[in-house]
Amino acid sequence: MLKVLVVDDAATDRIRVAGIAAKWRSCEVLQAENGQSAVDVVASELPDIVLTDLNMPEMDGLQLVTAIRDGFPHIPVVLMTADGSEEMAARALKKGAASYVPKKRLSDDLLDTLDHVYSTSKSAHTLSRLMHYMTETKTQFVLPNDPSLLKICLDRLISMLRCLPLGDEMERVRVGIALREAISNAYFHGNLEVVDDDFEGHKNDWHRIASSRWYEAPYCERKISLHADINRKRAVFVIADDGDGFDLATEGGEFTPLSDHGLENSESGGAGNRAESPGRGQTLMKSIMDEVTYNEAGNEVRMVKYAVQMDDDLEDEADPDAD
Length: 323
Known about the structure:
Blueprint: E1 3-7, H1 11-21, E2 28-32, H2 35-45, E3 49-53, H3 61-71, E4 77-81, H4 86-95, E5 99-102, H5 106-123, H6 128-132, E6 136-143, H7 147-160, H8 169-191, H9 205-212, E7 224-231, E8 234-241, E9 258-259, E10 262-263, H10 280-288, E11 291-294, E12 300-306, H11 312-317
Parallel strand pairs: 1-2, 1-3, 3-4, 4-5
Antiparallel strand pairs: 6-7, 7-8, 8-12, 9-10, 11-12
């Protein structure tokens, strides 16, 4: 049985979050009232995911992320953020958190976020031994608006990351999460032009509207291009859609995540909403990747992740499964 650890010093919030989390894959939910207690629970129970508040006494969420990353690098940490704490969330993502979800969106987005993080973590282990010995690879996909194909492509890109020294498995998971955000944005907001005005915010509307446009011109004629160039020093990903793009100087917004079964739902966002005023997706991408840039049209994103600095001799002798 999967285990999720919920960490929050406010008992009422902790109980509420635990109730929502318990619906995720019939998991067992553990609880801790602060970061220090959480470290003890992690050591004894080894949960699959830690879900933590940011502001807590004794050890806050930022310190907890660092402690888990140092002691248990295979366990992903998801942050719960209050309004106005996006800057701290970005700092925690840079410290090694896997993702975050705003507290006001917990009931709508928590289960999808847990699925997102867990499935990416599983994908990161695919073909792990073989990919460790790959020294360089370049690949290009030009795909239709098919969520199942996009998911398979994402899994392949994550497995290819094994050839890039990233220090630990969780960093590979985080890069996979950034890739998911970029691919989702190209699918929903780029090619299929799903915008806020199309719906009233109901959870299933993103997928319903997207699927209704699969066979409708001009959406059905558009493709998503994914280019990957990975070696032992850096990974470069270029993801482009055939949509009309957006104004880099004025637009801003949100991405929609992939799930285990394809592309699904997220919080608000829209076509032409991919630049200056970053939403959750932009925060994830810019905090995880070393470089994130767009073309002038706004329908192509280039993301770069550099290898951690490792001694060449030590890297050659390292256990392939411990990378």
